[in-house]
Amino acid sequence: MKTLKTAFLLVASVLSLGSVAANIEVRMMTAAPDKQSLTFYPIYTKAKVGDTVTFVPEQKAGHTSISLLVPPGAVPWQGKADTPVSVKMTKEGIYLVVCQVHRTMGMVAVVQVGKPVNLEEARKAAAAESAKMAINKDRFEKALAQVK
Ligand SMILES: [Cu+2]
Question: Which of the two ends of the chain, N or C, has the fewest CB atoms closer than 10 A to its terminal CB?
């Protein structure tokens, strides 16, 4: 009887959730499967409000995930070197991410959560950051081109 009650509660709670929040991994890599070096992989990620994005240092080289820009009302983050950081996405919009150590080498990522409400602001911030890069200056632009 107890098992039946537990099973019922489990089914009821799963049904009430509707869409289940996902945990999405973005890897921080020195050499990525797409032949890029010093890069987030993938550089563009689409998520829903309520999802968690975890930045995972796949190869250790001092990689650090920090937010360059977050949508209005969202909380910025600053990860530690070579340490995973999980960010719960509570606000819609575009998040720009850089690796503190390799940002001038174009180690950047874009996370889109829901609608891109701050796309214009994100484009401006990305262009300003890209102007300071020595290599891979087009990565932010390539990632932002995938925003829909
Ligand atoms: Cu890095």
Answer: N
Query: In angstroms, rounded to a whole number, what is the distance separating the alpha carbons of residues 63 and 83?
Result: 8
d(CA 124, ligand 1 centre) in Å: 22
Tokens of 28: 């921080």
What pLDDT is stored for residue 17 in this prediction?
Answer: 54
Query: What's the gap in Å between 80 CA and the centre of ligand 1?
Result: 11
In order of start, what are the domains of the chain with their CATH numbers?
Answer: 20-144 (2.60.40.420)
- Ligand 1 geometric centre to CA of 102 (Å): 5
**Phi (first) and psi of residue 119, to 5 degrees:** -60, -40
Here the tokens at position 131 are 């102007």
Ligand 1: distance of its center to the CA of 64 in Å? 6
